Amino acid sequence: MKNKKERAEEILEEESPEAVETTEDPTDSPDSESVAQDALAQERDKFLRLAAEYENFRRRSQKERESAYSDARADTIIRLLPVYDNLERALKMECADEAFYTGVKMTFSQLTEIMTSMGVEAIPALGETFDPNRHNAVMSIENPDLGEKEIADELQKGFTLNDKVIRFSTVVVAN
To answer: Would the pTM count as exceeding 0.85?
Structure first.
């Protein structure tokens, strides 16, 4: 199978309608040959530019499709994060019904596995140094046991999707 450049050169080598209509014999005048060569070069240049524009359009369209998929995936995960939060809260509560607790735990585990397989990772917070690119501080406390700008408590877990923050960790910062 020929590549695009070889096919483009073949098309340019074929006689164009303008070349067929000329009645002058190219051997009669040396200028007519150079004019024909110039016209052919111009047509070849137009063709190559058109082929390049098409290739750029194709690449741009591919990037837009990939971006739309990535954005839709991130939006879906963002909409599922409240479900994650509620299941996490449910697991922290005391429950007399062991079967119910086990069901919630299994559901939470399954959701966590799905999110992990999609490239979602939890942002580490508790005990870490505050990073405004990953954490959202809502409160500051004085605690001599903790270091400067160390995260004392995590109020809401943050997440990244393929190294892009989709939700900041809501934290309490010490000192």
So the answer is: no
